[in-house]
Amino acid sequence: MTPAPRIREHLARLYPNHRVVEIEPLGPDTGATRDATAKAAGYGMPVKVSLRDECAEELEVVWRVASANEFGHERRSDRATAALLAYDDFARMPHHIAAVDVGGIRGDGELVSIRDCGELYLITSYARGEIYAQDLRRIARDGADEGDHARVEALAGYLADLHVPERDPVRYRRAIRDLVGSGEGVFGIVDGYPEGVAGAPYERLAAIERRCVEWRWRLRSRANRLCRTHGDFHPFNVVFDGGELTLLDASRGACGDPADDLTAMAVNFPLFAFTASTGWRHLGPLWHRFWGAYLRERRDPELLEVAPPFLAWRALVVCNPRFYPGLDATARRAILGLAERALDAHELDPAWADELFR
């Protein structure tokens, strides 16, 4: 329902010398035809508002709110992006309608303008402790103790509890599409590679990308796998304070395939192992314990079968010198090779990681 009183209040602030005289819904297709070209729906239901000033001069504006749909607008952040892009881009187009204002709707219905803002900001609470990446560095160098094994169990247990099933085929297809096609997914990460990266020439990256596109069609119908997920479960987003863990920076709508979270963390065991000559001897057992503990806590017989494209994505991330400029070519070749082997075999066998260090 259009919040007419709130629209009137907001427009009175924008146009103090005008009053609203009419609010009229606009359909997606104003033509009279009802043939095959009649448009059924757009990305929202705009409303035309007519105003009149003291001299009876009329002014017409359109109030728009994007609607949720399966075309990349499922999340509130998607719809906010669309509004901000419109406000930024309309003024750049010759002979285009003008963007007068952009803002949000508060819980009480009040309209809040942000047209004079630049970048948006986010304030969060602070997590005391140490990022898990520090543990992995220490373990690779000095070995793991009982506490380190307990923390791996805690990570796996956290994910097992987190991965509560959800039922929404559209959101699952979105998650798989984002895996491959988003700016933070395979396509975007590949585009972020500079030319001539040792161990990752463009030909190799293109071949991995093609495999992942094929995998999208294997996965997109498995909506039964949709769960609540963290979306960026890596060692720099996990803080341990003693035995207590806190998570940072949940991403990608907080829902998707459990394999996303598992591979995001798991790929870091071989990554950090390459930093020390005895790295895999210390981190290898934790890699296996992580997979085993999760599957013990949460039954998922398809996990290793669907994991390859998620592992490939995370391997592309950690092998990209934009993120890890100090990674050498040997490690890059090995980690990408593990992902390629899984993509081609249509499954991931955790034992294959051991072969990288023989």
Any overview of this molecule?
By secondary structure, the protein is α+β, with helices and mostly antiparallel strands. It folds into two domains: 4-113; 130-355, Aminoglycoside 3'-phosphotransferase, Chain: A, domain 2. Helices cover 46% and strands 11% of the residues. The chain contains 13 helices and ten strands. It has helices spanning 4-14, 76-90, 132-142, 146-162, 169-181, 186-191, 202-219, 258-266, 268-273, 279-297, 303-319, 329-345, 352-355; strands spanning 18-25, 47-53, 58-63, 103-105, 111-113, 130-131, 227-228, 238-241, 244-247, 255-256. The strands form four sheets. It has a three-stranded antiparallel sheet, covered by helices on one side. Strands 6-8-9 form a three-stranded antiparallel sheet. The chain has a two-stranded antiparallel sheet with strand order 4-5. Helix 5 (169-181) runs antiparallel to helix 7 (202-219), helix 8 (258-266) packs across helix 11 and helix 11 (303-319) runs antiparallel to helix 12 (329-345). The protein is elongated and about 85 Å long. The model has no long low-confidence stretch (mean pLDDT 92).
